[in-house]
């Protein structure tokens, strides 16, 4: 009983923090006195930006149970966070609701006009990535699902309007983490690390990614924010494999080909398609900064999840009904794999407002104004 009272107190305290954060976001948008220029957000990616697609799939990769959502007004929703996730914050900062869930049968008609979220936990750039969890939408499937949305939009908007609408929309893509942690780094379940060295694997991911980004361009999207992968060697799940509990440096090192290649790809695409804007989100640098300077962000715990079990709370995602840590805004990680709401806010703010070292060559806010 006492424990629950404490949790309730902490929850109400944290709700205040969340509300303050939301108000800050709203002020952000208001203070710049901009008309809303972004027509819609189309979100492709994995659990970092899933807002409930996996609730509709037959998969172990779900987050629609307590304690997920403990700090979210709607409770557990399928977000892999204690509260809001990256796409909620980015949507708030742009003044566009983070689109409805593609897999929800009610996501039809005018409900799709502000965009749609296709992101799916365990999904990757490669179709086989994350298969041991069960159902998920891979990048390829998410692009097909966007085609379905386009067909629905065509029933509501004529072609001239549609091209204008798509050109003013923003596509957010957050992929790659699962291709490492739920594929390349699991040699007992996936053979990719026997078939490819790290450079070859990074190149394989980039080739597939480039093809699908250009497919989205070819059907009319013109503004892209493409996030690189963070320092995956430092997530609690990977630290749990290191005897000292420090970051797995070997894991961080193999990510270089992918991240550097993605940045180079964005440069190349901008050169070849002057009617579009492609931006690279430097996830590695932003989360690296949070982990190197936690005090600057008021984090006191960066090496273990707020919930989960095993070393560093690093073995699995939060267990159903598990009581999480009380001081969640002091944790960089919510569970073994995912940032806390507070860390997601830092990343989102820097993606929307940060300098070119965070979002290259321009940030999401600048892209919205084009
Ligand atoms: C397309 O729709 C817009 C807005 O509804 C309208 O102004 C325009 O005339 C339409 N164009 C054609 C070719 O029907
Ligand atoms: C690796 O696994 C895939 C299925 O995930 C299979 O299609 C392929 O043949 C395997 N390759 C090797 C070299 O074992």
UniProtKB/TrEMBL annotation:
<keyword id="KW-0472">Membrane</keyword>
<dbReference type="InterPro" id="IPR035669">
    <property type="entry name" value="SGNH_plant_lipase-like"/>
</dbReference>
<feature type="transmembrane region" description="Helical">
    <location>
        <begin position="6"/>
        <end position="27"/>
    </location>
</feature>
<dbReference type="GO" id="GO:0005576">
    <property type="term" value="C:extracellular region"/>
</dbReference>
<keyword id="KW-0442">Lipid degradation</keyword>
<dbReference type="InterPro" id="IPR036514">
    <property type="entry name" value="SGNH_hydro_sf"/>
</dbReference>
<dbReference type="InterPro" id="IPR001087">
    <property type="entry name" value="GDSL"/>
</dbReference>
<keyword id="KW-0443">Lipid metabolism</keyword>
<keyword id="KW-1133">Transmembrane helix</keyword>
<dbReference type="InterPro" id="IPR051238">
    <property type="entry name" value="GDSL_esterase/lipase"/>
</dbReference>
<protein>
    <recommendedName>
        <fullName>GDSL esterase/lipase</fullName>
    </recommendedName>
</protein>
<keyword id="KW-0732">Signal</keyword>
<dbReference type="GO" id="GO:0016042">
    <property type="term" value="P:lipid catabolic process"/>
</dbReference>
<keyword id="KW-0378">Hydrolase</keyword>
<dbReference type="Pfam" id="PF00657">
    <property type="entry name" value="Lipase_GDSL"/>
</dbReference>
<comment type="similarity">
    <text>Belongs to the 'GDSL' lipolytic enzyme family.</text>
</comment>
<keyword id="KW-0812">Transmembrane</keyword>
<keyword id="KW-0964">Secreted</keyword>
<dbReference type="GO" id="GO:0016788">
    <property type="term" value="F:hydrolase activity, acting on ester bonds"/>
</dbReference>
């Amino acid at each position: 009983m006492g424990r629950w009272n404490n949790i309730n107190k902490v929850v109400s305290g944290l709700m205040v923090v969340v509300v303050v954060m939301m108000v800050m976001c709203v002020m952000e948008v208001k203070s710049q006195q901009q008309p809303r220029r972004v027509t819609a957000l189309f979100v492709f990616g994995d659990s970092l930006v899933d807002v409930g697609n996996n609730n509709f799939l037959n998969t172990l990769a779900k987050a629609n149970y307590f304690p997920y959502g403990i700090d979210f007004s709607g409770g557990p929703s399928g977000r892999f966070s204690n509260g809001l996730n990256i796409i909620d914050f980015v949507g708030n900062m742009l003044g566009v609701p983070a689109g409805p869930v593609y897999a929800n049968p009610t996501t039809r008609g005018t409900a799709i006009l502000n965009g749609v979220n296709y992101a799916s936990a365990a999904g990757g750039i490669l179709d086989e990535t994350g298969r041991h969890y069960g159902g998920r939408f891979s990048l390829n499937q998410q692009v097909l699902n966007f085609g379905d949305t386009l067909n629905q939009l065509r029933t509501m908007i004529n072609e001239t309007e549609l091209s204008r609408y798509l050109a003013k929309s923003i596509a957010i893509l957050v992929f790659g983490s699962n291709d490492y942690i739920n594929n390349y780094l699991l040699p007992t379940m996936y053979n990719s690390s026997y078939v490819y060295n790290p450079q070859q694997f990074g190149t394989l991911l980039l080739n597939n990614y480039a093809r699908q980004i250009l497919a989205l361009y070819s059907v009319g999207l013109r503004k892209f924010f493409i996030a690189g992968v963070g320092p995956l060697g430092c997530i609690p799940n990977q630290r749990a494999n290191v005897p000292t509990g420090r970051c797995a440096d070997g894991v961080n090192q193999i990510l270089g080909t992918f991240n550097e290649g993605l940045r180079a790809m964005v440069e190349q695409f901008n050169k070849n398609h002057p009617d579009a804007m492609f931006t690279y989100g430097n996830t590695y640098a932003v989360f690296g900064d949070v982990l190197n300077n936690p005090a600057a962000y008021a984090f006191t715990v960066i090496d273990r999840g707020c919930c989960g079990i095993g070393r560093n709370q690093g073995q699995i995602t939060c267990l159903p009904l598990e009581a999480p840590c009380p001081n969640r805004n002091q944790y960089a990680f919510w569970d073994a794999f995912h940032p806390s709401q507070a860390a997601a806010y830092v990343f989102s703010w820097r993606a929307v407002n940060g300098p070119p070292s965070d979002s290259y060559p321009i940030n999401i806010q600048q892209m919205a104004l084009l």
